[in-house]
Amino acid sequence: MGVVREVWEETGIRVEVDELTGVYKNTTRGVVALVFRCKPAGGTERTSDESTAVEWLTPAEVEERMAEVFAIRLLDALDGAGPHIRSHDGRQLTTQP
Q: Which of 21, 23, 72, 87 has its CA 20 to 30 A from that of 38?
């Protein structure tokens, strides 16, 4: 599955895909992101050409450190009520949780 390869290439972490947790559309750029909840299954954290940092964060740290349009993706994945469908303009949600 593509998500397994992408996570490995960008973070050095091997994952097992659990489920689709959200579909997020950037209405300004016309980009749709599918987000999957995954479980770590090995590997060692590392950065890559596509990542500048790899960190494990608590939900509170996610809210504090990430922009709303990215934080909501992780928080939605943790709430178990998905899959969520949301739109944003690149800076803020245009549909509320």
A: 87
Distance between first and last Cα of the chain: 28
Q: How far is Cα 93 from Cα 44, in angstroms, rounded to an integer?
A: 33
Q: For the whole model, what pTM was predicted?
A: 0.86
H/E run at residue 54: none
pLDDT in tens, the chain (97 residues): 799 999 999 999 999 999 999 999 999 999 999 999 999 999 999 999 999 999 999 999 999 999 999 999 999 999 989 899 999 999 999 966 5
Give the Cα separation of 39 and 24 in Å (integer).
Answer: 21
Residue pointed to by tokens 């750029």: 29
| Residue 33, both tokens | 């992101």
**42 DSSP assignment:** E
> Where is 82: in which H helix or E strand?
none
Peptide bond into 83 cis (omega under 30): yes
